[in-house]
Amino acid sequence: MSQEAGTETHGSGHVAGGHVRTPDAEKSAQLADRIVQRFGLEKGQEDIFDLINQKAYYGGILLAGLVLFWWVLITEGNDDITLATSFLFDMNFSNVAITVGLFGLISSSFKSLSREKGQLLPSLLSGAMLIVCGFFILEPLFYGLIGDISINTGLWRSGRLVVLFTGVTFCASFLVEAYLLFWLKTFFESEGIVLAAAEEVEIPAAPDLLHLE
After folding, report:
1. Which residues lie below 8 Å from residue 160, measured CB to CB, with a gap of 6+?
2. Does 25 score more than 60 pLDDT?
């Protein structure tokens, strides 16, 4: 693990005591190091607990808010969903909103996870889902401009889809980060690693060049 993170480095493929790591264990150690670098964790082990609590807390708030938003403004939004169905699969507005919510949630989750794991396919799927969501969000506005529905209805639909997509994106990001930190905590506990605060790591002092002969 990194010296900046306050953990001890034993060299690639090895752990304390001279035991050789398996490939899976080595991958887990590398993932743990990337997570530590991503979140900083300057206070060491204390930061992990604080961030798990913080990320899960905000994720829960957003999740509850999205449920209320869906109930009040999507299902009860005084909108005739039979008008101006989507060009893709002839879906009504309610089904479009479900698709945008699911794709936004999955896309953000894939992006956050693949960032740390370096996986190709989740990133490709995340980008493709983002494009589909963008199409669905702009489509009602286009229908409003060409007269299939009123411009106000088009703006009302697109606006709600923007709020829904933004909400699920941030919610997924918080929940995935909470999951990564919880995994890091579990990994450290299973390996017997205690993450020290950054200020507790001893850094060798540089030579005093002014007093060198």
Report:
1. 73, 74, 77, 97
2. yes
Q: Delimit the domains of the chain by residue range.
A: 1-42, 50-192
Measured over the CA atoms of residue 142, residue 147, residue 149 and residue 155, the dihedral's sign is positive
CA dihedral 122, 127, 132, 135 (to 10 degrees): 170
Residue 204: DSSP 8-state = P
Predicted pLDDT at 134: 94
pLDDT tens digits, 26-74: 878 888 888 888 887 777 777 888 899 999 999 999 999 999 988 888 8
Q: Which amino acid is at 183?
A: W
- The first and second tokens of residue 4, run together, are 């900046």
Q: Are 213 and 21 in contact (CB under 8 A)?
A: no
Contact by Cβ (8 Å): 207, 139: no
Q: How many helices (H) and strands (E) does the chain have?
A: 5, 0
Neighbours of 14 (CB within 10 A): 13
Helix or strand run (H / E) with residue 35: helix 23-39
Q: Measured between alpha carbons, how far is residue 161 from residues 18, 100, 112, 196 in Å?
A: 55, 7, 22, 44
